[in-house]
Amino acid sequence: MNQDQAQGKINQVRGKIKETWGRLTDDDIALVYGKSEQFFGKLQEIYGLSKEEAEKRFSEIEKSCGGV
């Protein structure tokens, strides 16, 4: 997979995150790759999800986009 394809997959995942968790800001979503602990913390804070549930739902989003 070249860099453009990888970036396309990342953009798909970010779009799905916006659809799923619409109350997250673009800055929150930017945390997903690189500062994932902070991203999952935001999901816990805003949506009341456990860390395990947040990770599971995020994993499902990644899989639906063909993985990253």
Describe the structure.
72% of the residues lie in helices and 0% in strands. With 68 residues, the protein is mainly α. The chain has one domain: YjbJ (Protein Yjbj, Chain: A), CATH 1.10.1470.10.
Give a short overview.
The chain has 68 residues and is mainly α.
Features:
single chain, 68 residues, mainly alpha, Protein Yjbj, Chain: A, 72% helix, globular
What is the general shape?
globular
The CATH homologous superfamily corresponds to YjbJ
Radius of gyration: 12 Å
Number of domains: 1
- According to CATH, the fold-level topology is Protein Yjbj, Chain: A
Which stretches are low in confidence, meaning pLDDT under 50 for 5 or more residues running?
A: none
Structural classification:
mainly alpha
Percentage beta strand: under 5%
How many helix segments?
4
Would you list the SSEs in sequence order as H and E? HHHH
Distance between the termini: 10 Å
What would the average pLDDT be, to the nearest integer? 92
Largest sheet: none
What topology does this entry show?
Elements: H1 3-20, H2 26-30, H3 36-47, H4 51-64
